[in-house]
Design brief:
It is found in: Nucleus. One of its GO terms (biological process) is methylation. One of its GO terms (cellular component) is Set1C/COMPASS complex. Pfam families: SET. The protein has one domain: SET domain (Beta-clip-like), CATH 2.170.270.10. The protein is an all-beta fold. The strands form three sheets. It has a two-stranded antiparallel sheet. A two-stranded parallel sheet has the order 3-6. Strands 4-5 form a two-stranded antiparallel ribbon. It is built from no helices and six strands. The chain starts with 10 loop residues before the first strand and ends in a 25-residue tail after the last strand. Helix content is about 0%, strand content about 30%.
């Protein structure tokens, strides 16, 4: 993607062997942002032998309220800063 001039990628790890790449195609859910205190959570379910990502609300979500979930990135030495600005922000995505 760097060689193509694409600055952002939208990847979702389904399981150890499967990653869904919605960078070039995918629905608007690929733009859901991370938050350390999210109002939703993501769950992988299987329908007719196909794995699907479903976003569930944890609470009522108001009109014009941003939908967020915790990306749950693995802990790594190189940290990705979190910009959610909530009181309980961990400071990094990983």
């Amino acid at each position: 993607y760097v060689q193509e001039g694409i600055g952002s990628s939208y990847l979702f790890r389904v399981d150890h062997d499967t990653i869904i790449d919605a960078t070039k195609c995918g629905n608007l859910a690929r733009f859901i942002n991370h938050c350390c205190t999210p109002n939703c959570y993501a769950k992988v379910i299987t329908i007719e032998a196909q794995k699907k990502i479903v976003i569930y609300s944890k609470q009522p979500i108001g009109v014009n309220e941003e939908i967020t979930y915790d990306y749950k990135f693995p802990i790594e030495d190189t940290k990705i800063p979190c910009l959610c600005r909530t009181e309980s922000c961990r400071g990094t995505l990983n």
